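dude i think i finally got it to work??
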Amino acid sequence: MTAPTVETLTEGSVTQQALGRLVVETAGQGFTELTEPAARWVFGTGILHGILTVFCRHTSASLLIQENADPDVRRDLLAALNRLAPREAAYVHATEGPDDMPAHIRTMLSGSSVTIPVTEGQMALGTWQGLFLVEHRDRPHRRDILFHLIGA
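look at this
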């Protein structure tokens, strides 16, 4: 294991913040890749080095950083979530339909925000990593995603 390197921003650099919003129309349960729109937004801020927080403003959809090369990974992840939070279980909360409570559980397991380092004006994702919104409900939804970038 090698020690982490230390990169110091230029002396006197000014901390900046940028806020953004992305509205995503989902087709129902499944993954929607957000890597490209997020990357374009980050680049457009002019902030070269910092931390990007991406937040989903919903309790039945989540955000993940996951492999974006092989779609079989996403199919297997959905199958795993279906096993962990099946629709046919006897949930007390069923007012919004049989897919609602499992969606809340799946969001609890996968999370509503991610943090991504930004270097040279780009998200510092790995070679096969992508940013995804995961819709846990069966029918289409409009999802509100917020971006907050702080850096210099």
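The CA atoms of residues 49 and 79 lie 37 Å apart.
im so relieved honestly
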